[in-house]
Amino acid sequence: MTRSVILGVGNVLLTDDGAGVHAARRVEATLHGRPDVQVIDGGTLSFILAPLIAAADRLIVIDAANLRAPPGTMQVLFGADFDAFLGKPKLTVHEVSLVDLLDIARLTDAVPPQRAIVAVQPHTIKWGEGLSAEVDAALAHVVSTVIDLLDRWPAKIEPAPPPVACAASCS
How do the domains of the chain map onto residue ranges? Predict the structure, then answer.
């Protein structure tokens, strides 16, 4: 069975920085314990998440990020674009740890073959437990996007074919 991990990250004590965690909780409530999906409240991340990520076939990260867009704007990035996005400066330090977690997976050749980040532009990041109106309103779209990704990605991930030996005539 293909194993999907939904990882909501952020600090729920810093207003919109907690958007990923709040969205992940809504995704979990919507999925009602679907056996092929594990929803994780990653909070501000920890290295203990590395084995969970490495064991996943599909990884969807939900997080607040500076998209240089109006508050509540959502952007989805896949595969190599996801990886490149993680290398850019972010709003909060926890995203550096996400890069570290994926680097650990790379070292063990266990990067989830299908991976995406669903990023939401925050309105404010300051002490407070609630989301801004703009980000709170965007979460319904974030949740439906995550569910759609789960449904659209192939149910079974086929391993890459072995390399083909090439004769001198191959180009």
Answer: 4-152
